[in-house]
């Protein structure tokens, strides 16, 4: 009985450390992801905010997920272009993985292993994206092509982020 009590006390005093897992949610799906990073908007338009970025996993497939606080009727869609510091350009095709919740437009784009390898060896400089609105009409101030850059106090070394996240 003493032995059992000693074990109980021992195990109750050992701190339990749980590694938190980040997730990104799009529609009815959730994907394990990195934490959220910020790319600074290059637009002078006050309606266009900074672009948030996470890397995520969909099974064996890797995703880059971008989001921005906009309005409830728009989405980030069509082609996403990633410009790397070494001049490499990665074009991502819209696969229709997008959503808009709480005025935050969010879209996910698949990247191949070769494209992730490029990001492992050259940092993301700028991302070019499109905002579309099917209900805004001809006088909307949202639609357009915008860019956001990895600069300022939020500059991130994505070569390290991608290497660590996808080695797991």
Give the gist of this structure.
This protein has 3 helices and 11 strands, in the order H-E-E-E-E-E-E-E-E-E-H-E-E-H.
Could you explain how this protein is built, in words?
The chain has about 170 residues and is of the alpha+beta class. It has one domain: Immunoglobulin-like (Sandwich), CATH 2.60.40. Helices cover about 20% and strands about 45% of the residues. The protein has three helices and eleven strands; from the N terminus they run αβββββββββαββα. A nine-stranded antiparallel sheet has the order 7-6-10-11-3-4-5-9-8. A two-stranded antiparallel ribbon has the order 1-2. Helix 2 packs across helix 3 (about 160-165). The longest helix is centred in the first third of the chain and has 12 residues, at about 1-15. It is globular. The termini are far apart.
Note the topology.
Blueprint: H1 2-13, E1 22-26, E2 29-33, E3 37-41, E4 51-58, E5 61-69, E6 75-84, E7 89-92, E8 97-101, E9 104-111, H2 113-121, E10 124-132, E11 144-149, H3 158-167
Helix pairs in contact: 2-3
Number of domains: 1
Number of helices: 3
Order of helices and strands: HEEEEEEEEEHEEH
* Integer-rounded radius of gyration: 20 Å
Key terms for this structure?
168 residues; alpha+beta; Immunoglobulin-like; 9-stranded antiparallel β-sheet; 3 helices; globular; disordered N terminus
């Amino acid at each position: 009985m003493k032995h059992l009590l000693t074990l109980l006390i021992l195990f109750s005093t050992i701190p339990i450390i749980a590694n938190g897992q980040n997730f990104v949610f799009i529609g009815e799906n959730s994907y394990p992801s990195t934490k959220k990073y910020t790319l600074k908007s290059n637009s002078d338009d006050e309606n266009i905010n900074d672009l948030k970025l996470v890397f995520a996993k969909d099974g064996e497939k890797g995703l880059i997920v971008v989001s921005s606080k906009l309005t409830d009727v728009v989405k980030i869609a069509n082609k996403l272009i990633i410009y790397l510091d070494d001049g490499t350009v990665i074009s991502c095709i819209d696969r229709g993985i997008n959503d808009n919740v709480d005025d935050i437009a969010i879209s996910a784009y698949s990247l191949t292993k070769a494209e992730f390898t490029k990001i492992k060896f050259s940092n993301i400089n700028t991302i070019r994206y499109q905002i579309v609105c099917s209900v805004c009409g001809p006088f909307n101030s949202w639609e357009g092509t915008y860019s956001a850059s990895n600069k300022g106090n939020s500059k991130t070394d994505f070569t390290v982020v991608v290497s660590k996240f996808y080695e797991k």
